[in-house]
Amino acid sequence: MATTASETRPLAALPLLKGQKALVTGANSGIGKATAIGLGRVGADVVVNYVAGKEAAEDVVREIQSFGVRAYAHEADVSQEDQVVAMIARVVEEFGTIDIMVANAGLQRDASVTDMTLAQWHKVLDVNLTGQFLCAREAAKEFMRRGVVPEVSCAAGKIICMSSVHQIIPWAGHVNYAASKGGVLMMMQTLAQELAPHRIRVNAVAPGAIRTPINRSAWDTPEAEEALLRLIPYRRVGDPEDIANAVAVLASDFMDYVVGSTLYVDGGMTLFPGFATGG
Ligand code: NAD
User: What is the pTM of this model?
Assistant: First the structure.
């Protein structure tokens, strides 16, 4: 039966990440918010990064604290090197170290290629790709300094890059975004290869269509949603919690041998749905 209703269950309060320290970028909205809350629910202390919208970030912090773990909000633009360096220095100061970096912050500045300004191109690459590079680099330094603490995790650290199905699906009218996510794929794999000997696991989660502010126009009318569902074999738009659950499990030691992988969380969007009825 086709349904668009939200069916996602948050992970039960298993202590999957108990004692681990996590930072989620862009965590006052959408996927980042659900992920920060999800990591807190399963036992992690969490830094809620935001670039604008302090109130929303403080709300997320309070929700995480209600699980009995620590959390604070930190304002930083992930595309600015000095701000990312300061953000990681602070988490080490406040929490002692960091175990999980979720490089989630991202945005779109859509235009047809002939209308796309260089500023739109740079903005998306700066936040979606350079921002993830800076966050991964600074987290890796701390992971390598500290090494493995077996009672906390099998790994010295985990980096999870928030990618997109558009790391492999071309997307007309969004060349800056698709290029940024294609870049995330190769950045993630290269970092995974380089950092694995240090027992640092680098992986990506690639969401399909998730109901968040970034893509509101794709699902906020019945017509738009019906058109979107034609691209989703599982016939429902995803919820931010679908991604939060995947991130929490991927960051946990249950996934200790998963290195350099992309976990597609997309209801089958990458299965060439146009071929389901022929081709
Ligand atoms: P969203 O707009 O709700 O959240 C994006 C977050 O990133 C916001 O908190 C925003 O403030 C933050 N951000 C933007 N620029 C920033 C900067 N310079 N520094 C720090 N934070 C910044 O959208 P979302 O859907 O939750 O997107 C989160 C991630 O998921 C993005 O990387 C996006 O590309 C990816 N994604 C989303 C979908 C989807 O369907 N929603 C699909 C695939 C991938």
Answer: 0.97
Cβ < 6 A, ligand 1 pocket: 25-26, 28-32, 49-52, 77-79, 104-107, 127, 131, 162, 164, 207, 209-210, 212-215
The residue segments making up the domain with residue 201 are 21-213+239-273
Residue 209 in domain = yes
Half-sphere exposure of 262 (CA within 13 A, CB side): 23
Residue ranges for the chain with pLDDT beneath 50: 1-4
pLDDT, tens digit, for every residue of 48-89?
Answer: 999 999 999 999 999 999 999 999 999 999 999 999 999 999
265 Cα to the center of ligand 1, angstroms:
16
**Are 125 and 109 a contacting pair, CB within 8 Å?**
no
Task: Determine contact, residues 94/46, Cβ cutoff 8 Å.
Answer: no
Please give the pLDDT value at position 2: 44
CATH number, position 67: 3.40.50.720
**Closest residue by CA, ligand 1 atom 6:** 26
Q: Is residue 11 part of a domain?
A: no
72 included as an active-site residue: no
Ligand 1 centroid from CA 93, angstroms? 27
Q: How many domains does the chain have?
A: 1
For the record, the structure tokens of 141 come out as: 């330094």
